[in-house]
Amino acid sequence: MLHFLPRPQLKQILSREVPAHRKRMHPPEVTLGLFVEQVISNEGACQGVVGRHLAQRTALGLPSSSLNTGPYCKARQRLPLALVEACVSEVADAALAALPAAAQWRGRNIKLIDGTTVSMPNTASLQAAFPQSRVQHAGLGFPVARIVGVISLSSGCISDWTVEPYIGEGTSEPQEERGQVHLLGVNSRA
User: Which domain of life is it from (predicted)?
Assistant: First the structure.
């Protein structure tokens, strides 16, 4: 991420998207970096990224941190979604700008749209936000979300996405069922 987001640009995004915060072991810029590392890691476990963070701090001569994953997980939960969205948007723009003109088809940035569904833990808050499909019996099964993303064919970067409840196969988009008009994501750059 830092290859496409130089430190001054990242600091600008952080100052715009992250409210004032206390000095902690996992400030937003560190937490964001660890989260990106966790997501792209083959392992993906919190314990792995916390261990690597401890090793980095030790190598730099900084005070050691705990191997307890709790503080990192709490810090990750404090990251505003707007921060992640702004970083995704900036990285997608930078990646596209870095490509040669020949990477585009007839001078156009072709975009792909793809989607999938994900199952989530059966908690009351997730059930409220992502109600069960009509094909499931009440109280059985897990909340399911539909994720749709817009991907640049030239850069391979996701430039926009949306996450909505999955109502069931063969149904229209849930937003239409609720009488709302909704364009993909908050960026609406599709």
Answer: Bacteria
Task: Retrieve residue 50's tokens.
Answer: 């916390």
d(CA 96, CA 110): 11
> For 117-129, what is each residue's pLDDT tens digit?
888 888 888 888 8
Query: Residue with structure tokens 């019996």?
Result: 137
Q: Compute the C-alpha angle 163/145/127, nearest 5°.
A: 115
pLDDT in tens, 30-42: 899 899 899 888 8
Alpha-carbon dihedral sign for residues 178, 180, 186, 188: positive
Name the CA radius of gyration of the chain, rounded: 20
Confidence (pTM): 0.70
Count Cβ atoms below 10 Å from residue 95 Cβ, excluding itself: 17
- In the chain the first and final C-alpha atoms are separated, in Å, by 22
Contacts 24+ apart (CB under 8 A), 85-88: 85/185, 85/186, 85/187, 86/13, 86/16, 86/17, 87/1, 87/5, 87/10, 87/13, 87/32, 88/157, 88/158, 88/159
- Per DSSP, the residues of 74-116 read HHHHHS-HHHHHHHHHHHHHHHHHHS-GGGSBTTB--EEEEEE
pLDDT digit string, tens, across residues 70-84: 999 999 998 998 998
